[in-house]
């Protein structure tokens, strides 16, 4: 059996909130095209660890981290933050569709936020294909231009998953 290609590797990740260290030398490898689970009891640092991967942790006042995150062998600290977040997608535990955007706009939000322009035809294709992937197309095709927050909680979560996978992130 072939060795899997490693798409993401962490080396000695540490994280702090103020003076409190919450992660201690976390190292690991995430293979390409495989499901990887990060498990542990509540409060053990799973979310903080995942947030260090695309530098979201640093958006919290007083937070800092150390260690290395390699994306396809490249140290993400040398990459533009927009590129890092384009390649390392994240879906949060609670649904968080952008409240001022429609369902359609939510799916395409990553393109807008990264300054990528799409033709209407290409945008329509991405929206339909992505919503189909998350099993939402049949439920919302008549609601594409209503607020994403008008959907049920479960639909909002699938919309957020669609928003992430529409960008085809590496992780």
TrEMBL record:
Keywords: ATP-binding, Nucleotide-binding, Phosphate transport, Transport. InterPro entries: ABC_transporter-like_ATP-bd, P-loop_NTPase, PstB-like. One of its GO terms (molecular function) is ATP binding. It comes from the Bacteria. GO terms for biological process: phosphate ion transmembrane transport. Residues 25-171 form the ABC transporter domain. Pfam families: ABC_tran. GO terms for cellular component: membrane. This is ATP-binding cassette domain-containing protein. The lineage of its organism: Bacteria, Pseudomonadati, Caldisericota/Cryosericota group, Candidatus Cryosericota, Candidatus Cryosericia.
């Amino acid at each position: 059996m072939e060795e899997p290609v490693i798409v993401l590797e962490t080396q000695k990740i540490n994280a702090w909130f103020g003076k409190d260290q919450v992660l201690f030398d976390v190292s690991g490898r995430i293979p390409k095209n495989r499901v990887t689970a990060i498990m542990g009891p509540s409060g053990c640092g799973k979310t903080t660890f995942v947030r260090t991967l695309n530098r979201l942790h640093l958006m919290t006042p007083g937070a800092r981290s150390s260690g290395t995150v390699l994306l396809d062998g490249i140290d993400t600290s040398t990459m533009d933050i927009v590129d890092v977040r384009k390649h390392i997608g994240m879906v949060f535990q609670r649904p968080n569709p952008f409240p001022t955007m429609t369902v359609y706009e939510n799916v395409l939000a990553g393109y807008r936020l990264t300054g990528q322009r799409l033709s209407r035809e290409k945008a329509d294709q991405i929206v339909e294909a992505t919503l189909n992937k998350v099993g939402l197309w049949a439920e919302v095709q008549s609601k594409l231009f209503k607020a994403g927050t008008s959907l049920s909680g479960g639909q909002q979560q699938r919309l957020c998953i669609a928003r992430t996978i529409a960008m085809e992130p590496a992780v």
